[in-house]
Specification:
single chain, about 325 residues, alpha/beta, Dihydrodipicolinate Reductase, domain 2, seven-stranded mixed β-sheet, six-stranded parallel β-sheet, globular, binds (2R,3S,4s,5R,6S)-2,3,4,5,6-pentahydroxycyclohexanone
Length: about 325
């Protein structure tokens, strides 16, 4: 069976997904597209033999479409995801599931009312080989009880639209998801710590920032987020356990990384660093749909990640530790 996918949003990540779904993933084809930039959508549609529609809801409702992939800006995700649920079409939504917990909860309610899972959230790091072997080492108890996680999330530079909340809502949301997934616990509190500002960051942007995330069991996760680091897209994670550590890339020697010309092989952006993970993620989604199953990161995962990222934003504003307010996990999502 070939899954016919409609893609809404064909900007940078959306157009990469169109390419993957039409020529790299087995068992899928892209049949319909929409983008606010009509010309871009129609030229991509022509290149893959799809139809470019005038509006996103037309893609969702089209009889040419079995499943929908949403790669539009975050503030449109809730409405589009709910429109898919209303007509019972599986939907892959790029992160965040929605910018507010209220919108995420509406999605959970709609999905539970439908009666089976339809939504997968695009937390691609769970499909990265290195993250997966870290998860296996933790699950196999190789490093004993987990005590701490040290994470870095650095981008070369930030777009002009990037505000001081976005390190949490747009970037650290990935560490929030991977931390929950790695340790199998919810995050209960966040404290944002002010750091000396880089003179390379735009005037309006606090950069870098540091956040401490806490689990109920006492595990603490520190995340440095630095989105104008100049040299590369550098994502690191070290998990410290009672018996040892497991990390994405253990440092073996001294390294100095400065600017793109001296970045020591650090990739330029997430599209390169997580290119393989995106492909595995979409293949897994399509394979599942072929069997009528949606098993990747769920709406519940999307809701929790948004709740924790909002908690970080509150801590940024208050200057204090803030607690995460989550509903009880519905049995539907266990
Ligand atoms: C971007 O929006 C992403 O989702 C990337 O995965 C992330 O690493 C980057 O920091 C974000 O700006």
């Amino acid at each position: 069976m070939t899954v016919r996918v409609g893609v809404i949003g064909t900007g940078s990540i959306g157009s990469d997904h169109v390419r993957r779904l039409s020529s790299e993933v087995d068992g899928s084809t892209v049949t319909a597209l929409y983008d606010i930039d009509i010309e871009r959508a129609s030229s991509i549609a022509t290149s893959v033999g799809a139809v470019a529609f005038d509006g996103p809801i037309d893609v969702i409702k089209s009889s040419l479409v079995d499943a929908v992939l949403i790669a539009t800006p975050g503030e449109t995700h809730a409405e589009l995801t709910r429109a898919c649920i209303e007509i019972g079409k599986p939907v892959f939504c790029e992160k965040p599931l929605a910018p507010t917990t209220e919108e995420c909860l509406d999605i959970l309610k709609a999905e539970m009312a439908f009666g089976s899972r339809l939504v997968q959230v695009g937390f691609m790091r769970r499909y990265d080989r290195a993250y997966q072997s870290m998860k296996k080492a933790i699950d196999d108890n190789d490093i004993g009880d987990v005590l701490l996680l040290h994470c870095l999330h650095r981008n070369v530079s930030s777009p002009s639209t990037y505000t001081s909340s976005m390190p949490f809502t747009d970037s650290v949301i990935h560490e929030i998801d991977t931390s929950r997934w790695l340790v199998g616990e919810e995050l209960v509190a966040a404290t944002v710590v002010g750091v000396k500002k880089s003179s390379y960051a735009p005037e309006h942007l606090l950069d870098p920032q540091l956040v401490l995330l806490e689990c109920a069991s006492g595990i603490v996760i520190d995340v440095e987020v630095f989105v104008n680091c100049q040299y590369g897209y550098d994502v690191r994670c070290e998990v410290v356990g009672e018996l040892g550590v497991v990390s994405l890339d253990p440092p073996q020697s001294t390294a100095t990384m400065m600017t793109r010309d001296h970045a020591g092989g650090v990739p330029p952006d997430w599209k390169v660093r997580f290119g393989d993970a995106y492909l595995v993620e979409l293949q897994d989604w399509i394979d599942g749909l072929g069997q009528g199953v949606v098993a990747g990161p769920s709406s519940w995962d999307g809701y929790c990640a948004t709740a924790v990222s909002q908690c970080c934003v509150r801590s940024l504003g208050s200057g204090h530790r803030e607690t995460v307010d989550l509903i009880d996990r519905p049995a539907f999502y266990i």
